[in-house]
Design a protein that fits this description.
644 residues, alpha+beta, Heat Shock Protein 90, Ribosomal Protein S5, domain 2, Rossmann fold, 8-stranded mixed β-sheet, 5-stranded mixed β-sheet, 20 helices, 36% helix
Length: 644
């Protein structure tokens, strides 16, 4: 054992640091909002909106407006009761100031302010203040208007003060994130759009208005209002699908101050889309309420099948994956005291939620099937079809194994493997086309970089079950090369490469191939995305050169800037080459621009990216024309370089 050397730095009581007020949040923001990247940035908005939603849940608010103002300032206004402004009995300052400057201070800790609330930890307002360069709080309490300005993470020079009279109630919060803390403070309209639409679905009858005012010449706005609640949510998610029964099935139950509601509808696709929420918080990692739903759904199907002889005595029971094929479902519970795992509330832990949802589905769906036998029959037939397909997939998998296609010793013939076996260093480039694959093989680092060329369009997994994957000559080499299995047999610890990099042309066909591959990974190898193994290569669009001076540009803006720089004051002639494909680059260029770890740009794919790509792909490649038409009309003005 190596000898441990004593730490020569002096260590005594003076080294123990106490972070005052909100300094703990500024010191370790990731502990409170997950990250300082785009996800954490948008989380600030969610925290303030959640406070307004809690007012709505309490029955005092039916309108919330969210504005993105110039300079990426966010303004959130609600018509709730207005945050209390009286002097706090313990702190000796306004209760509003307490809520915005002291961690774990709020009306959600059993004091009777809220029966149900999403703000479990009570840190929302104070954390947003801590991570903002400035924040303005305005409160309308039906008699007076109060205002307080905060700066640099919650500091203030003046206490909350009365500035006018009013007969309205509500709260307005305007804040600008601190650009010394966040990687970017550029809010993405689409991200906020998705979240706020979600909140309007989950709270029937509440109007949420989102407006982007950053560009006065192009103000964008959405008005979200859904009387149908989560039933409308299911219809929205299924808009590019073909449902196999007309209306979503809706179940509701209230028990011991707890509420559970479920809405679901089956489509003719092969994949499940289940979203669960607890007190309006999206539990992206599921939890007890989702477990209760899945268990009860499987039980009801099998009980119904046995009772009406749709399953013979010799038939095996349907599995969960069988009864969930093609389902789009929303599970929403509202509890007095939610127990989440983690500060960002990704997974629900309340045991009573499982029993509540289980009982709701067992009783409610059983009754629904009895009262709607035609719908029950068509759904049950889909489940038994999925069961047969699962058996076919098992046989196809066994056949593939016998042919050694999925064994470590049976690597694809087109794979140029690397010599290193250290997964922390190895990477595989899945390259579009044999020509680009040839350049990549010649230009790569043979020690750590493997190359797998693909050719032609691959299987659209959106319209095929897993048994078709095992016989597909385009996808099977990918599965074999990665070596970690597929579907429910996938073992991410066996993946042969630390990075799986999709490298395709920067054109429409390349984008199509990236989306096809990403959809495949999302559907059948999702743990690779969840654990950060999937990446996109970013090949340049232009080569800008003057003599031996060369720049590679990834956007038209970069192209123009480099051209101006190389032209210089003499306005010398600058040559520009537009790359229409990876195959146009020689091995040296491909290495220098796209493969060299020291110089390249690669983008790590997140689960949110994959989810969005999957939804877009389903819409563009699905059978429904109207959603595709709406998408093209909405995005046509973004098109550039149509002639290249």
């Amino acid at each position: 054992m190596a000898e441990r050397k004593p730490n020569e730095q002096h260590y005594d009581e003076s080294q123990i640091q106490v972070l005052e007020g909100l300094e703990a949040v500024r010191k370790r923001p990731g502990m409170y909002i997950g990250s300082t990247g785009p996800a954490g940035l948008h989380h600030l908005v969610y925290e303030i909106v959640d406070n307004a939603i809690d007012e709505a849940l309490a029955g005092y608010c039916d309108r919330i407006t969210v504005d993105i103002l110039p300079g990426n300032t966010i303004r959130v206004e609600d018509n709730g009761r207005g945050i209390p402004v009286g002097i706090h009995p313990k702190e000796g300052i306004s209760a509003a100031t307490v809520a915005y400057t002291i961690l774990h201070a709020g009306g959600k800790f059993g004091g009777g302010g809220y029966k149900v609330a999403g703000g479990l930890h009570g840190v929302g307002a104070s954390v947003v203040n801590a991570l903002s360069s400035s924040l303005d709080l305005t409160v309308y309490n039906g008699e007076h208007i109060y205002f307080q300005h905060f700066y640099h993470g919650g500091k203030y020079d003046e206490p909350l003060k009365e500035i006018g009279d009013t007969d309205h109630t509500g709260t307005v919060v305007s804040f600008c994130p601190d650009d010394t803390i966040f990687e970017t403070i550029e809010f993405q309209y689409e991200v906020l759009q998705d979240r706020l639409r979600e909140q309007a679905f989950l709270n029937a009858g509440i109007r949420i208005i989102l407006t982007d005012q950053r560009d006065p010449q192009n103000i964008i706005s959405d008005d979200f209002y859904y009387e149908g609640g989560i039933r409308s949510f299911v219809t929205h998610l299924n808009k590019s699908k073909t449902p196999i029964h007309d209306e979503p099935i809706y179940l509701y139950k209230e028990e011991n101050d707890c509420i559970a509601e479920v809405a679901f509808q089956y489509n003719d696709g092969f994949y499940e889309n289940i979203k669960s929420f607890a007190n309006n918080i999206h539990t992206i990692d599921g939890g007890t309420h989702e477990t209760g739903f899945k268990n009860a759904l499987t039980k009801v199907f099998n009980d119904y099948g046995r009772r009406y002889k749709l399953l013979r005595d010799s038939d095996a029971n349907l599995l969960g994956e069988d009864v969930r094929e093609g389902i789009t479902a929303i599970i929403s519970v509202k509890l007095p005291d939610c127990e989440f795992e983690g500060q960002t509330k990704g997974k629900l832990g309340n045991t009573e939620a499982r029993a509540l949802v289980d009982g709701l589905v067992t009783e409610g769906l059983g009754t629904y099937f009895e009262e709607n036998p035609a719908v029950a029959k068509v759904i049950f037939e889909k489940a038994t079809s999925a069961q047969r397909a699962r058996e076919a997939a098992r046989r196809a998998r066994e056949t593939a194994r016998r042919k050694s296609a999925l064994e470590a010793g049976g690597l694809p013939g087109k794979l140029a493997d690397c010599s290193s076996k250290d997964v922390s260093k190895t990477e595989i480039f899945i390259v579009e086309g044999d020509s680009a694959g040839g350049s990549a093989k010649s230009g790569r680092d043979r020690n750590t970089q493997a190359i797998l060329p693909l050719w032609g369009k691959m299987l659209n997994v959106e319209k095929a079950r897993i048994d078709k994957v095992y016989t597909n000559e385009k996808l099977l080499p990918v599965v074999a090369a990665l070596g970690c299995g597929i579907g429910d047999e996938l073992d991410v610890t066996k993946v042969r490469y630390g990075k799986v990099i999709i490298m395709a042309d920067a054109d429409v066909d390349g984008s199509h191939i990236r989306t096809l591959l990403l959809t495949f990974f999302f559907r059948y190898m999702r743990p690779l995305i969840e654990e950060g193994h999937i990446y996109f290569a970013q090949p340049p669009l232009f080569k800008v050169f003057r003599g031996k001076r060369v720049r590679y540009a990834f956007t038209p803006e970069e192209r123009d800037r480099y051209a101006a720089e190389l032209a210089g004051e003499g306005n010398a002639k600058v040559d520009i080459q537009r790359y229409k494909g990876l195959g146009e680059m020689n091995p040296e260029q491909l290495w220098e621009t796209t493969m060299d770890p020291e110089n390249r740009t690669i983008i790590q794919v997140t689960l949110e990216d994959a989810q969005k790509a999957d939804e877009t792909f389903s819409m563009l490649m699905g059978d429904k024309v109207e959603p595709r038409k709406e998408f093209i009309e909405r995005n046509a003005h973004f098109v550039q370089n149509l002639d290249v």
